[in-house]
C-alpha cells in the first residue's frame, strides 16, 4: 500500500545489450568503433564523415602483397558501383603512409587507404591478432571486412576473407542491408 502523496515506482525500460561474440570482440549489431586516421595522399579520414551512409571497411595485412593487391584492385574495380549505391569504401592496414602511397600509385587504386600504425583501430575492430605462417606465430592483421549500416552499427563481418569474389559479395550484401 502506498503512502498518501507518494509517487508510484516505475520500472526503468529494459535495454538489450548489443550481441557479443564468445571472445568479447566486435560482433554484428555492435556500434562500430569511431576512427580518424591518416590516408594515402595526405589528410585524415573520419568515420563520422560517413554518418547516415553505409560504409565498407576492408582490413588488409600488407600493401603490395599478392592477396592484398587483388583485394584492393577488386574494391577499386567496383568503386563506381559502391558510389552509385551511396556506399563508402575504405581500406585500412598498419602500413605507413609511404607504403600506402606507393601501393596506390603502383596499382592505380582509387579506394582511400588508411594507415593505423599504432594498431588502435585494428584492435578496436578485433582484426589485430595472432597469425601463423610457415610454422611461425606472430601478430598481424587478420584479413577482415566490416559492413557498417546507416545507423552506425555493424551489419556484417567477414573474417578470414578469401579474396576471390569477395568484393562482389560485399557489394551485394551492402546493397541489401537496410
UniProtKB/TrEMBL annotation:
GO cellular component: cytoplasm
A Pfam family recorded for this sequence: AhpC-TSA
InterPro entries: AhpC/TSA, Peroxiredoxin_BCP/PrxQ, Thioredoxin-like_sf, Thioredoxin_domain
GO BP annotation list: cell redox homeostasis; cellular response to oxidative stress
Catalytic activity: a hydroperoxide + [thioredoxin]-dithiol = an alcohol + [thioredoxin]-disulfide + H2O
Thioredoxin domain location: 26-178
Keyword Disulfide bond tagged: yes
Chain segments annotated as coiled-coil in the UniProt record: none
EC number: 1.11.1.24
UniProtKB keywords: Antioxidant, Disulfide bond, Oxidoreductase, Peroxidase, Redox-active center
Keyword rRNA processing attributed: no
UniProt GO MF annotations: thioredoxin peroxidase activity
Recorded family membership: Belongs to the peroxiredoxin family. BCP/PrxQ subfamily.
Quaternary structure note: Monomer.
Protein task: Thiol-specific peroxidase that catalyzes the reduction of hydrogen peroxide and organic hydroperoxides to water and alcohols, respectively. Plays a role in cell protection against oxidative stress by detoxifying peroxides and as sensor of hydrogen peroxide-mediated signaling events.
Protein name: thioredoxin-dependent peroxiredoxin
Amino acid at each position: 500500500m502506498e503512502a498518501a502523496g507518494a509517487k508510484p515506482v516505475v520500472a526503468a525500460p529494459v535495454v538489450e545489450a548489443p550481441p557479443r561474440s564468445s571472445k568479447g570482440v566486435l560482433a554484428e549489431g555492435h556500434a562500430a568503433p569511431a576512427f580518424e586516421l591518416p590516408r594515402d595522399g595526405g589528410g585524415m579520414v573520419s568515420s563520422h564523415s560517413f554518418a547516415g551512409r553505409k560504409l565498407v571497411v576492408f582490413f588488409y595485412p600488407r600493401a603490395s602483397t599478392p592477396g592484398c593487391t587483388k583485394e584492393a584492385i577488386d574494391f577499386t574495380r567496383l568503386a563506381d558501383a559502391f558510389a552509385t549505391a551511396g556506399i563508402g569504401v575504405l581500406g585500412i592496414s598498419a602500413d605507413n603512409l609511404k607504403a600506402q602511397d606507393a601501393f596506390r600509385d603502383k596499382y592505380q587504386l582509387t579506394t582511400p587507404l588508411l594507415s593505423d600504425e599504432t594498431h588502435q583501430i585494428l584492435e578496436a575492430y578485433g582484426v589485430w591478432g595472432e597469425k601463423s605462417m610457415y610454422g611461425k606465430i606472430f601478430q598481424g592483421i587478420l584479413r577482415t571486412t566490416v559492413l557498417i549500416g546507416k545507423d552506425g552499427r555493424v551489419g556484417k563481418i567477414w573474417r578470414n576473407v578469401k579474396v576471390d569474389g569477395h568484393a562482389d559479395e560485399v557489394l551485394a550484401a551492402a546493397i541489401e542491408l537496410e
